[in-house]
Amino acid sequence: MEELAALALDEAAGLADYADVRAVTEETESVSVQDQRLDGVERATTRGIGIRVLAGGSWGFAATARLERAAVLEAAHRAHAVALASAQVQRRPVRLTPVPVARGATYSTPLRVDPFTVPLDEKLALLFAATAAAGAVDGLSFARGSTDAWRTTKRFLSSEGADVAQTVVQVAGGVECVAIADGQLQTRSFPNSFRGYCGTGGWEDVLALDLAGRAPGYAEECVALLTAPDLPAQTGTLVLDGNQLALQVHESVGHATELDRVLGYEAAYAGTSFLEPGDRGRLRYGSPLVNLTLDSTTPKALGTYGWDDEGVPAGRHVLVADGVLQGFLTSRETAAELDDGTVSNGTMRADSWAAIPLIRMTNIHLEPGEGSLEELLEDTGDGVFLSTNRSWSIDDKRVNFAFGCEVAYEIRAGKLGRRYRNPTYQGRTTAFWGSCDAVAGPQAWQVYGTPNCGKGQPGQVARVAHGAAPARFRDVVMGHR
Question: Which domains does the chain possess?
Answer without folding.
Answer: 2-225 (3.30.2290.10), 234-478 (no CATH)
